[in-house]
Amino acid sequence: MRNAEFDREKVLRSAMTAFMDKGYGKTSMQDLTKATGLHPGSIYCAFDNKRGLLLAALAQYKTDRSAEFQRFFSGEKLVLVELKAYLDNIVQECISCEAAKACLLTKALNEMAQQDEEVQKTITENLANWQQGLAEVLALAQTKGELSTKRDSQHLARFLVMGIYGLRTFAHTHPKGETLQELADQLFLDISA
Amino acid sequence: MRNAEFDREKVLRSAMTAFMDKGYGKTSMQDLTKATGLHPGSIYCAFDNKRGLLLAALAQYKTDRSAEFQRFFSGEKLVLVELKAYLDNIVQECISCEAAKACLLTKALNEMAQQDEEVQKTITENLANWQQGLAEVLALAQTKGELSTKRDSQHLARFLVMGIYGLRTFAHTHPKGETLQELADQLFLDISA
DNA sequence: CCGTTTCTTGAATAATCATTCAAGTATTAT
DNA sequence: ATAATACTTGAATGATTATTCAAGAAACGG
């Protein structure tokens, strides 16, 4: 008889950045009420509990990242050109001192590994989904003749994912962008050469 | 007039694994008393507080890892053979389901980024030190003629470090060893080729 | 316009946490 | 042996935490 007053997407996005800022454990309910503008009761009504809010935020993160992926790999340019732009964008993400220096998935994965099975499963599925997306992009590049077929696209995708994980961790110790860009360029070379 | 009754190294090593198990934030003082066998008062007497225990554990970790590094790069074999063994050992570390799936440095780095300046600084210095060690090893390989001098040893070391970071994160989602070994092999190839 | 349903509010609750401290115990120097 | 000195013990403390719930406010159906 009455609709919720808050914008679910906005709430989830602010929860996302709050979780990325401090990590799940150190983000207090008070932090979350401040970040989302929601009162404790509303959060518990809408998402069950803090953990439910994290799961909902992870789902929203997946949606947002998938949309971004589609934008980068629209098929308008050469696949390898699109991939280069995608990597450069990740470097920019790492450089910008915005709260969310890390990706929510890897941040939560590092924190929750072997502690919460359902969260771990959700994250692992999302990451596997992303990796598969990259594998398909690379396979497309191979059928288009942009990329050698000597190495399996799944293998290349795994190596790419590993490199991006590493790049994000590296960024924590090296705020300067130059080095990160150099590493991303090297990674791109090793994939495409 | 009386010496401490506990073995400092043993205490720090058990604290290390406790922190790696649950992360710093979720490791309670109760967990630490259980892990170390020390009572709260003793911990506070010896290390000031929980944070002090972490800093001491990080120092011990650095000592232990440096010793391990020296063991792997003793100069008895070809540098590249030693490097390969070093990487294979990391893969084994990731596979073994022991508590410490991650390295304490990267685990703490992910958790504490931009929250505790001194901890962050300590970790960053340790990681930089490790990277420098690898750079020197690679430079030695170059002077010995085992490795092309086309790429700068510092550059190669950064890429290697990035790869190892990524490998560790990747391990969280892929407990199976086969894939990890394949990735490590590829990383070795990209460095040495 | 009224009654019912649903959402919102925020103070109260209960648990957990890091930390302290005073009493107890062992060791050493004399 | 004894006093002085240090280390150990673990219950008490106070702060912080996630969570609940009863009262209040808003929206809709009739």
Compile the SSE list and pairings.
The structure is a homodimer of 193-residue chains.
Chain A: H1 8-22, H2 29-36, H3 40-47, H4 50-72, H5 79-95, H6 104-112, H7 117-143, H8 153-173, H9 177-192
Helix pairs in contact in A: 1-2, 1-4, 3-4, 4-7, 5-8, 5-9, 6-7, 7-8, 8-9
Chain A binds a DNA duplex (30 and 30 nucleotides) through residues 1-5, 28-30, 38-42, 44-45, 49-50.
How would you portray this structure in words?
Two copies of one chain form a homodimer. Chain A folds into two domains: 1-65, Arc Repressor Mutant, subunit A; 73-193, Tetracycline Repressor, domain 2, CATH 1.10.357. Helix content of chain A is 75%, strand content 0%. Chain A contains nine helices and no strands. Chain A is elongated. The A-B interface holds A 21-23, 25-26, 101-102, 106-107, 109-111, 113-115, 123-124, 127-128, 155, 158-159, 161-167, 169-170, 172-173, 179, 182-183, 186-187, 190 and B 21-23, 25-26, 101-102, 106-107, 109-111, 113-115, 123-124, 127-128, 155, 158-159, 161-167, 169-170, 172-173, 179, 182-183, 186-187, 190.
